[in-house]
Amino acid sequence: MIKDTRLILALDVTDRQQALKIAQSVKGHVDAIKIGYPLVLATGKDIIGEIAEMVPVIADFKVADIPNTDRLICEQVFRAGADALIVHGFTGYDSLRMCVEVAEVHGADIYVVTEMSHPGALDFMQRVAEDMAQMASNAKVAGVVAPATRPERVQKIRSIIGNEIAIISPGVGAQGGSAADAVKAGADWVIVGRSIYLADDPKKAAMEIAKEIKDAIDQ
Fold first, then answer.
1. By C-alpha distance, which of 53, 111, 49 is closest to 79?
2. 68-94, pLDDT tens digit by residue?
3. Coil, strand, or helix at residue 192?
4. pTM of the predicted model, to two decimals?
5. Is 191 helix (H, G, I), strand (E, B) or coil?
6. How far apart are the first and last CA of the chain?
7. Percent of the chain scored above 90 by pLDDT?
8. Does 34 score more than 90 pLDDT?
9. How far apart are CA 127 and CA 85, in angstroms?
10. Residue 193 and residue 95: Cα distance in Å, rounded?
11. Sorting pLDDT into bands at 50, 70 and 90, what band is 50?
């Protein structure tokens, strides 16, 4: 994924035409669009390829199954046109490594969740987040997911994985995270959803957040 604006749009709408309109409007102002179950279940998996014709797509399906089932899911996602896929790591190294191997065949990327951005992640996920990060590094993933809502955790995950693996960081905007703080803590990209796709002018909203990220980097 090209590091230009360092902004990823989480496009969690459920209407096909709305999704395509927003994707077109933010084209050139985001480095990727993350789509998940809400949009795909509502419109079908062809939406992946339609959006990927405009902007690189990260499929946020948080895949978590045995290696063979993971393989089947990954193959379908990449054949549909996704450039990357987000998976869970708690199923273990063999499942994670299978996802990476399928991605390599398709010239795609795998991002593994270390810790999610919502408060409930503190119940269980944070306890094993550092182990997840180390396993992700060992499995040679392209990147990991770490929460912008807790920049100190982004910093901790960065200290474990080093600089060769990317961090994409959700939770900016509606969840209270700061794009600037996430980038300063070590995130390569920040993920923003509602603050962009619910805005009266998604393009303008994306541009403003991209400027915030650039200003933080330039400081």
1. 49
2. 999 999 999 999 999 999 999 999 999
3. strand
4. 0.96
5. strand
6. 24
7. 95
8. yes
9. 24
10. 29
11. very high
From the list 83, 92, 41, the residue with the least C-alpha distance to 63 is 92
> Cα 110–117–200 angle (5° rounding)?
95
The yes-or-no verdict on residue 1 having pLDDT over 90 is no
CB 115 within 8 A of CB 156: no
At position 181, the amino acid (one-letter code) is: D
CB neighbour burial string for 64-84, b if at least 16 within 10 angstroms, e if fewer? bbebeebbebbeebbebbbbb
Please check the confidence at residue 219 and state whether its pLDDT lies above 90. Answer: no
Q: Does the annotation count 62 as an active-site position?
A: yes
Q: How far apart are CA 179 and CA 185, in angstroms?
A: 10
Region of 140 on the Ramachandran plot (φ > 0 left; ψ -120 to 50 alpha; else beta): left
Identified catalytic residue from 3, 34, 45, 62: 62
Look up residue 215 and give its two tokens. 């200003």
